[in-house]
Each structure stands twice: as C-alpha cells, then as structure tokens.
Amino acid sequence: MNLLFSAGLAIGLPWFAAGVLAHWWGPARGTAWSTHHAYAVRTFWFGLLGMLAPVAAPGPGLVLLAVVWLWCAARMVRAWLAWEREEWIVDPGRFI
C-alpha cells in the first residue's frame, strides 16, 4: 500500500489502486496494521479531494493541490517510518 501511495505522488493511477487496497483489506482489527489501514484510508480521501481541487476552482485549486501533495508526502514519510519500525501509527485520524 505504501509503495503504491508513494508512486501515486508522481502519477495518479497507483494512488487509486492503493486506495482500493486500503479499503479492501479492511481494518485488520487487533493488529499493528489496523492503524496503518485507517491512516491509508484517510490519506487516500484527502489526496483524492486535493486532486479534484483544480477542477472545482482552477486558480486557488492549484495552490490547494500543491498543499495537499506536500501533506500526502509528509504522511507517506510517516507511514514508511512506522512500517519500517513495525509500530502502530498513533492516532491515525490526525492530520499529520
């Protein structure tokens, strides 16, 4: 999932595949990965909204797209670090 999300920062299609996987695998209740799935689902939806921003408002939407892209990149760094350490993502509902 993290690999697809990371590739999705450069091109959009892997982003959608990662979102489908995050929803399909479900919450993985009771495991350390449950927080990773919740984190991935939230990242997917905010990233998708950011990708649609330029369509809704062409001028300010481009600025919002850049901000959301940076936000998603920061979340991916956090997800990779947590995955590498095999630890829970504390409060996956946070914005960063």
Taking the sheet with the most strands, its summary is: none
Total of domains: 1
Low-confidence stretches at least 5 residues in length (pLDDT < 50)?
Answer: none
Shape: elongated
Distance between the termini: 18 Å
Helix content: over 70%
Give helix and strand order, one letter per element, not per position.
Answer: HHHH
Structural class estimated from helices and strands = mainly alpha
Mean pLDDT across all amino acids: 82
In what range is the share of β-strand residues?
Answer: under 5%
Number of strands: 0
Number of helices: 4
Q: Gyration radius, to the nearest Å?
A: 13 Å
Transmembrane segments: 46-71
Protein name: DUF4870 domain-containing protein
Keywords: Membrane, Transmembrane, Transmembrane helix
Keywords:
96 residues, mainly alpha, 4 helices
Write the layout of secondary structure elements.
Blueprint: H1 2-8, H2 13-25, H3 33-56, H4 58-85
Helix pairs in contact: 1-2, 2-3, 3-4
Please characterize this protein's 3D structure.
- The chain has 96 residues and is mostly helical.
- It has one domain.
- Helices cover 75% and strands 0% of the residues.
- The chain is built from 4 helices and no strands.
- The protein has helices at 2-8, 13-25, 33-56, 58-85.
- It starts with a helix and ends in an 11-residue tail after the last helix.
- The model has no long low-confidence stretch (mean pLDDT 82).
- The chain crosses the membrane at residues 46-71.
- This is DUF4870 domain-containing protein.
